[in-house]
């Protein structure tokens, strides 16, 4: 009960006000720095300067080409597993209240987690060399 | 209604605290660049920067000033708005994480006021850190993509997939710690590690969760793109990295933000695992000095621990060679994630049946 009261006390919008303040100050700080360098620096643009750097070789085509699907696969796996990891957090905070029963339930969840994990390993989703 | 009740002195106090923290972050980041060059010089038997000021101490100021007066170049093929947004977002997220770190104990003044050395004590402290760190990846991703340069794009994709892979293990490694603390609030976790010895065991979390700390630290290295996980910035393959097309202060913001991230992640590691601002014999010191001096000593202790971590980051950078990409992914997915899960299950079982708390 005491815990719940404490949680309520810490969870009013008022507690988040300093964070908004910090965001404001951070944005202001970075904005001023970028504005200052924009005003202070020289502006002598030439055609050659504005070409993308490619080790001195004339650049070929657009950089935004199709890339290996492996990267997308990692991103999707991350989304899947990160959601599962987030499910552990409320449990971990209430670990003591939930006791043995809760722990056994979470062991089951860890089992499901591992099943999915072993499945993607067996499927070769994380194999980087063909 | 709530807005009407805002205490203006409270706002002023927080504003001053935030400004101090932001300025200190910039100062630490600037001198971390000096420190890195000196450490590299010592390890490679060179002198390092020694021209500007005593021992080159004015070098960071000279570098920072130079960046302001350089020409801004936005390449023709780039997407202009996103190109500017990239470094902006990266720096803002780097400055945001410090909001939930407790920099010292509360100061109880003689007048009965309580001055907190933490910007915001929210009950989801650690989740806030994770959330902001995740947004930081966008800064790299947007910057690399908007440059329309093949090297930048490759680097930003590498960086993104590396960061998200290690975020999983990082999240998992903390669960065991949260099981012991029972709270996500950074301030509570710091207070639980009071002193050094509680009569049975050492109070700092690193002595209760050595494996959890190790996993967290490795993940922090990867999240920061620091050596040995600095694949997004390896000169030998990618020329420079995701900030290749950037110049003047936009480049400076990327470089500074990396050092600020290093400072903040050291602070998070110290807060979560190495006893935050607590030190052996702090009760004796608290009883023999007044509140403000005691708080000041605590802040100095915290800063000393953070400095030790930053130096450790630097020693590692100049000691270990870089990982290969498949080795990096294998370590993250097949090594650290199962290890973190194992650590969590063992911790839970130990608390329930061994210590029976």
From TrEMBL, chain A:
What Enzyme Commission number does this protein have? 7.1.1.-
Annotated coiled-coil segments of the chain: none
**Which GO terms fall under molecular function for this chain's record?**
NADH dehydrogenase (quinone) (non-electrogenic) activity; NADH dehydrogenase (ubiquinone) activity; quinone binding
Instruction: State the compartments where it is located.
Output: Cell membrane; Membrane
Name the source's superkingdom.
Bacteria
Keyword terms, alphabetized: Cell membrane, Membrane, NAD, Quinone, Translocase, Transmembrane, Transmembrane helix, Transport
Q: Transmembrane residues, as ranges?
A: 20-40, 71-91, 103-121
How does the record say this protein sits in the membrane?
Multi-pass membrane protein
Q: Please describe the quaternary structure of this protein.
A: NDH-1 is composed of 14 different subunits. Subunits NuoA, H, J, K, L, M, N constitute the membrane sector of the complex.
Which family would the database say this protein is a member of?
Belongs to the complex I subunit 3 family.
Q: What is this protein called?
A: NADH-quinone oxidoreductase subunit A
Lineage, opening ranks: Bacteria, Pseudomonadati, Bacteroidota, Chitinophagia, Chitinophagales
